[in-house]
Amino acid sequence: MTGPPGVGKTYSINLAVSLFQSECTPGRQATVKVVPVKGSDVIYNSTETDKPIKTLLTNLFKPSNDHDVTLVFIDEADALLSHSILVTDLMGNLLDKLSTTSTPIFLVMATNHVDHIPKALRRPGRIDEEVFIAPPGVEGRVHILKRILGTTTLDEEGLFVLAQKCVGFVAADLALLVKKADREGGGTVTLQTLNSALATTPPSALRESMLSKPTGVGWESVGGNAGGAKGELQRAVEWPILKRDEFKKFNLKPPRGILLYGPPGCAKTTLAKACANAANVAFMTLTPADVYAAPYVGDAEAVIRRAFKTARVGRPCVLFFDEIDSIVGGGDDNNEGGGMGMGGRGDGKSAEARVMSTFLNEMDGVDIAGDDGVLVLGATNRPNVLDAALLRAGRFDKLIYVGPPDFEGRKVVFKIHGSGIIGLAEDPELLGKLAAMTEGFTGAEIEGVCRTVTMELLFEEIEGTEEEGKTIYERFKDVVSAVNPITEDAEATREYEVFRKMRRG
């Protein structure tokens, strides 16, 4: 059994034993001998040799004539089984003999680090099954909260809203949350004390990981509708969570992956963070630098696997791959790769092929987004170089073009990034003029224009060289005239249009 700490692995074992004893044998109660062992304690109490461990393991698997079944439960199994080759070999031999014992012996192990369990043991005939216990979804968290609170008069809808905020929480986290709320309320737990305690109770899944809960980035951070992308993302990401009953009614499944494509500087990353924040789900970003930073061959694939594993633990989660074309490579023959001195790339193109294979395998295994799933978001400025295998149904199901902001969007961008210029945000006429003169500009280009004008005003104030009679509009006009917007590149713009028509994005 694998899963994050506090998710309920030990509880599940105890519950299974209880159910077995009461229901397994009709007419009489079955007797189960439970032998609990903690791997870390065994290692701590052992001597310099493995002899005490060998004796302990051998005794664990001795049949009991006084019970119908013997259940050996090894918690923190990774600490024990990865201790030495001798321990691994001994456990393998003991597992091979389980089928010949006089009374049934079952071995159940629990670990937070399944990758540390030797592969020699993780095969049929030894460890036959691996069960991953994921953190509960929203409805699961509501159920756990009710069990912890017992008889409660708390509002059902209020509990549901609270559970939505508890992204990545496991049962142990929820128990701690209630304990804090009880202490804060002087022995009385209310929705107010629960919400107050939530601010100081980080979930286990987000501790010491690349997962985060986006803060300070909402839909208001995106100027306009980003060429319609904002509305499409809201429907694809928020609706499956906030309108889940309607989705169930129409038997509609949300997308597993969404690709955001378009010119650089059009707020693709901001859109990804905003949708995760609005849907109140965990968020994780991977860039090419994250994937190819390690020095050894195979490390890049390990980063991809670890990212998907972390996202599953923290679900519901948005897993965002920025510049995905540089992470998985493309299908074009001109992309030679390699020679970049980036660890993990190996010979470049072959490394990207391995990363692509790993990415596809992991993506095919993710749960569909929604209440309890993982949504994979990708962003690229070069959609035409992506391998067709990425774009088939069941992977990146939805392709969303993120273009430069429209007229109203540009006004919002000027208002956001020109907030340091006195009077700009409160002057709708000036905002309209600035938006009109920057048609085709990306959000990043408008942000750069605002920064330049603001810096000019700052320098003039500090140095006392302010130009008399020069209006804010004239300052912006001078700066804008020196900018060549990326959309003036007709060839680049045409490529996006061709891709949109081909993919009907």
Q: Which percent band covers the strand fraction?
A: 5-15%
Q: Could you give a short account of the major beta sheet?
A: 5 strands, parallel
Rg value: 29 Å
Task: Tell me the total number of β-strands.
Answer: 8
**Shape by Cα distribution:** elongated
The average pLDDT value, as a whole number, equals 83
Residue stretches low in confidence (pLDDT < 50, at least 5 long) are: 332-346
Structural class, by secondary structure, is alpha/beta
Order of helices and strands: HEHHEHHEHHHHHHEHEHHEHHEEHHHHH
Assign a percent range to the helix content: 40-55%
Count of individual helical segments? 21
In whole angstroms, how far apart are the ends? Answer: 42 Å
Strand order of the largest sheet: 5-6-7-4-8
Would you write up a description of this structure?
The chain is an alpha/beta fold. 46% of the residues lie in helices and 9% in strands. It has 21 helices and 8 strands. The protein has a 5-stranded parallel sheet with strand order 5-6-7-4-8, sandwiched between helices. The protein has a 3-stranded parallel sheet with strand order 1-2-3. Helix 14 (299-313) packs parallel to helix 16 and helix 19 crosses helix 20. The protein starts with 8 loop residues before the first helix and ends with a helix.
How do the helices and strands line up, and which of them pair or pack?
Blueprint: H1 9-23, E1 32-38, H2 39-45, H3 51-60, E2 69-75, H4 77-81, H5 85-96, E3 105-109, H6 138-149, H7 156-165, H8 171-184, H9 191-198, H10 229-242, H11 244-249, E4 257-261, H12 268-279, E5 282-286, H13 288-291, H14 299-313, E6 317-321, H15 324-328, H16 349-364, E7 374-380, E8 398-401, H17 407-417, H18 428-437, H19 443-463, H20 472-481, H21 490-503
Parallel strand pairs: 1-2, 2-3, 4-7, 4-8, 5-6, 6-7
Helix pairs in contact: 3-5, 6-7, 6-8, 7-9, 8-9, 10-12, 14-16, 17-18, 17-19, 18-20, 19-20
